[in-house]
UniProtKB/TrEMBL annotation:
Record organism: Gordonia sesuvii
Any Pfam family hit: LysR_substrate
PANTHER family, sorted: HCA OPERON TRANSCRIPTIONAL ACTIVATOR HCAR, TRANSCRIPTIONAL DUAL REGULATOR HCAR-RELATED
Keyword Repeat: no
Transmembrane segments annotated in the record for this chain: none
Protein name, as recorded: LysR family transcriptional regulator substrate-binding protein
Gene3D superfamilies: Periplasmic binding protein-like II (3.40.190.10)
Length: 253
């Protein structure tokens, strides 16, 4: 289904933006508030697994989520997406774990480990290393608690490891692990407010005329040529009617 810009109970426009754990949209939100003080931006915290359905059912107008992971859950309907940046994948382990000996590792280094795979699935790993712990915690936060308890280790995007930082845990990059891409997901067709936010994320200046209804109409090539000639005549660079006759010179017949 397509989704128009949302409205408040007073029929004033509002833009509902979902974001997933680990993503920090603060800078973009501040720019939005400066450029569009007339349109409130409502932030909606969602898990990756809930973003597609929220877009498809019109509960939010855009989501900053992990791609393509979000599209493996639920139906986003007709939609657009763009990739913003790629995240490093890390393994979270207890501070005294043997894996902390190196600065980085590969999936082969996890072959003998018990791995936790939370149900909120912040990232998809098709070929999972090691042995999966039979119990699947509900959330990444719950999985972090189990890592601290020595139940297993956890593969996550680096931003989530930082979000759930604990003094008794550390994380190390896994150089050959699948990575997670953070991007924008929104329904078709693209609304004016969605285009406004995309412009903010992409660094479009506030003075950009893209998408503005008050943009000056473009002149034709003939109009441009006529304007150029008029300017040159006014500057005396082309003989015009006024420049061909000096004072007192008789008019030719």
């Amino acid at each position: 289904m397509t989704t128009p810009d949302a409205t408040t109970s007073d029929d004033a426009p509002v833009f509902r933006l979902a974001f997933v754990p680990g993503v920090t949209p603060g800078k973009w939100v501040r720019i939005w508030e400066q450029r569009r003080p007339d349109v409130p931006l409502d932030l909606v915290a969602l898990d990756v697994a809930d973003c597609a359905e929220a877009i498809g059912k019109g509960r939010v107008q855009m989501a900053i989520t992990r791609l393509p992971d979000a599209l493996r859950h639920g139906d986003a309907g007709a939609h657009h997406s763009i990739e913003l940046y790629e995240e490093t994948t890390v393994v979270v382990v207890p501070k005294d774990h043997v894996l902390t000996a190196g600065d980085e590792m590969t999936l082969a280094d996890l072959a003998d480990e018990q791995l936790l795979w939370p149900l909120d699935e912040p990232m998809t790993v098709e070929q999972r290393p090691g042995t999966a712990v039979s119990h699947r915690p509900e959330t990444t936060g719950d999985a972090i608690e189990l890592v601290a308890a020595g139940i297993g280790v956890l593969l996550v995007p680096q931003s989530l490891a930082r979000l759930h930082h604990r003094k008794d845990l550390v994380h190390r990059p896994v150089t050959d692990a699948p990575t997670s891409t953070v991007g924008l997901l929104w329904p078709q067709p693209t609304t004016d407010l969605a285009d406004e936010f995309i412009g903010i994320v992409r660094g479009r200046k506030a003075t950009s005329s893209r998408g503005r209804t008050d943009e000056a109409p473009k002149r034709s090539a003939r109009e441009k040529a006529a304007a150029k000639r008029a300017a040159r005549e006014a500057a005396g660079k082309i003989p015009g009617k006024s420049s061909r006759r000096g004072p007192g010179r008789p008019k030719r017949r």
